[in-house]
Task: inverse folding
């Protein structure tokens, strides 16, 4: 509580929250690419299940 | 202890009741294998939870090597050579385990984590690979509308999926084992290694059964459900395994990068200059190749040479696994009492030599019990060897190079296992082809010749392992245990 670097209410420092944010952005990018590729392959196999 | 029993309790109980009471008291740990791995800081429930990452790795391994191997050939009609290339792709990533271990040792994180980011990254890679894999396999098989598209899309995407899963499982296992080493004190490590191995085996066996049951009524839709179900299971298991495990050690003085990070070359140089490090890695490679070359040959050997039925040969895999389980249990028990892990690994190689002899002899004698006994001994020897070398790697790892040391062990072990399986098949085929043309003499034209040649090479490799490993026996073990 007495550490001025910690930000209310999570108690994370700016550096820690930046690292978390970086991981979330990176994870979203990876999952996005995977989802796009999986959809493309599903479309190639069976165009929207037609 | 009976000698210091509570006097009130002793007065109230006759000797028989006292003995029964003792039996009840001992029943708990007896029925809870690895209960002695737990410590006050790391209770058994936490260790079991951590070991779930091994279940996810085992699940991915059996899916690639076992289930999809068969599905691609039988149900999807993919050429066997393409399948062989696909399932060998994950091994390509195995040498990079050293790099993953090094990176996790030197990872700079504001949150103070070294292993968690790598296990999480590995989990995402494995999830990603499994998420695109079913569609990639369906396109690879040329089914549905796939024939209307360029033919390179299928192999490329299937290859990518297998590579992603391989990269994921090797990263998860390396960082996970390093985390386990960080968490437990030196004296509990042998039992923790046993627990990790058993959970890997458990993940493999249970997943194989579940995949088998789910894919009985095969359809493309069911394939998508099963593989993507495995992807979700990976995420769930690894999040549960990771949750609140690693102690956060945020960098002091606001994470200033004052201490330069060593390069991989420097760190590797320091590691390999350590106590017999190269000799240990060579011994691990030789021993692992020796214990894995027969992996894909035992079942066809049973069928072709001993006339076993398909159901009987499937039981051989179970026998091998049971031998491995006994090996892990035996090694955990002996090593946690302070035995030398290298002595144990040498003993395992010495068990393997007669085991291969028994398997070879079972052919001409046409003895099924002899063959099954030999297979069990092979499983036992392989289990003890793996356990001994991993325990030694953990206990000899310098405190700041735990990840690198376990990465090097994993890289040597996983690469050697992949090479061993491939070599076993290739050598058997080559020798069988040469023997079939009577180039080795008329006495060696039988179906057993190719297999026997591989088993003889394995005996020679085990002898070489013993020779390489003998100088390590009784080395600096006590110093390292005390210092780690």
Result:
């Amino acid at each position: 509580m007495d550490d001025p670097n910690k930000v209310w209410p999570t108690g994370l420092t700016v550096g820690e929250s930046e690292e978390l944010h970086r991981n979330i952005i990176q994870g979203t990018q990876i999952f996005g690419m995977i989802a796009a590729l999986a959809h493309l392959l599903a479309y190639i196999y069976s165009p929207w299940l037609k | 202890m009976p000698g210091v029993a509570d006097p009130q309790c002793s007065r109230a109980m006759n000797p028989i009741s006292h003995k029964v009471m003792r039996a009840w008291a001992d029943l708990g740990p007896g029925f809870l294998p690895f209960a002695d791995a737990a410590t006050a800081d790391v209770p058994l429930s936490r260790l079991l939870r951590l070991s779930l990452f091994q279940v996810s790795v085992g699940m991915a391994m059996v899916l690639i090597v076992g289930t999809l191997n068969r599905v691609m050939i039988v149900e999807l009609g993919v050429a066997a050579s393409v399948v062989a290339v696909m399932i060998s792709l994950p091994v390509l990533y195995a040498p990079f385990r050293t790099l993953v271990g090094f990176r996790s040792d030197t990872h700079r994180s504001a949150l103070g984590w070294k292993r968690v980011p790598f296990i999480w990254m590995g989990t995402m890679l494995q999830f990603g690979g499994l998420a695109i894999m079913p569609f990639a396999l369906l396109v690879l098989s040329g089914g549905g509308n796939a024939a209307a598209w360029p033919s390179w899309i299928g192999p490329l995407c299937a290859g990518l999926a297998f590579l992603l899963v391989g990269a994921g499982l090797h990263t998860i296992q390396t960082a996970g084992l390093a985390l386990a080493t960080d968490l437990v004190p030196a004296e509990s490590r042998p039992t923790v290694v046993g627990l990790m191995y058993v959970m890997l085996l458990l993940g493999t066996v249970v997943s194989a059964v579940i995949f088998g049951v789910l894919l009985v009524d095969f359809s493309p839709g069911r394939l998508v459900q099963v593989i993507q179900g495995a992807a979700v299971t990976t995420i769930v298991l690894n999040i549960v395994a990771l949750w609140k495990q690693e102690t956060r050690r945020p960098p002091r003085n606001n994470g200033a990068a004052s201490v330069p990070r060593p390069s991989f070359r420097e760190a590797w140089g320091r590691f390999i200059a350590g106590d017999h490090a190269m000799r240990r890695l060579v011994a691990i490679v030789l021993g692992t190749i020796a214990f894995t070359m027969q992996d894909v040959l035992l079942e066809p050997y049973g069928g072709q040479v001993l006339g076993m039925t398909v159901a009987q040969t499937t039981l051989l895999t179970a026998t091998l696994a049971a031998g491995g389980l006994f090996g892990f249990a035996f090694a955990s028990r002996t090593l946690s009492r302070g035995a030398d892990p290298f002595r144990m690994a040498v003993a395992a190689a010495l068990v393997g030599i007669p085991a291969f002899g028994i398997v070879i002899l079972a052919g001409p004698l046409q003895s099924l019990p002899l063959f099954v006994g030999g297979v069990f001994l092979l499983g036992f020897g392989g289990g003890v060897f793996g356990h001994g070398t991993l325990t030694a790697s953990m206990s000899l790892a310098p405190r700041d190079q735990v990840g690198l040391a376990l990465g090097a062990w994993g890289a040597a072990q996983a690469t050697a296992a992949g090479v061993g399986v491939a070599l076993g098949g290739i050598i058997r085929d080559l020798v069988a082809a040469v023997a079939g043309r009577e180039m080795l003499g008329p006495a060696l034209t039988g179906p057993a010749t190719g297999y026997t040649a591989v088993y003889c090479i394995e005996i020679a490799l085990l002898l070489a392992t013993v020779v390489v490993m003998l100088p390590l026996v009784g080395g600096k073990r006590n110093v390292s245990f005390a210092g780690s």
Remarks:
- The CA atoms of residues 263 and 380 of chain B lie 40 Å apart.
